Amino acid sequence: IEEASIIGFVLRRDLESIIQQRTLSNVESNMNTYISFSRTIQQQSNLIHLYRLLNRSPTTITLDTPTTTIIDLCRKLGAQT
User: Fold this and answer.
1) Is the model's pLDDT at 14 over the cut of 80?
2) What pLDDT does 67 receive?
3) 3-state secondary structure of 10
4) Residue 4 lies inside a defined structural domain of this protein
5) Residue 78 has what DSSP assignment?
6) Domain range for 70
7) Which of 13, 29, 48, 59 has the most crowded Cβ, counting Cβ within 10 A?
8) Looking at residue 1, what is its pLDDT?
9) Does residue 1 lie within any of the structural domains?
10) 15-31: pLDDT as tens digits
11) CB environment 40-55: b (16+ within 10 A), e (fewer)
């Protein structure tokens, strides 16, 4: 298995919901379950596709982020300044 890292964000409620749905529909609970963040669809009964849930462009604000960038971001999100 290759080492890989995902940079993105998945809401906890979405992740819990899809895992719960999968658990309810999984007949063979002793089978290993794999998670895929890939766009390609592989037809395996033990594979959970999470690509549509992944926000691949989360915004991170650090102490080094310029104030003007933060203000612009807040305006784009609809915050009043």
Assistant:
1) yes
2) 92
3) coil
4) no
5) T
6) 12-76
7) 48
8) 44
9) no
10) 888 878 877 776 555 66
11) eeeeeeeebbbeebbe
Q: Is 20 exposed, middle or buried (0-12, 13-18, 19+ CB in 10 A)?
A: exposed
Using one digit for the tens of pLDDT, what is the confidence trace for 28-51? 556 677 777 777 766 776 777 777
What tokens does 39 get?
A: 């766009």
DSSP 15-69: HHHHHHHHHHH-S-TTS--EEE--SS----TTEEE-GGG-BS------TTS-HHH
Question: How long, in residues, is the chain?
Answer: 81
Q: Is 9 helix (H, G, I), strand (E, B) or coil?
A: strand
Higher pLDDT, 1 or 62: 62
Domain count, the chain: 1
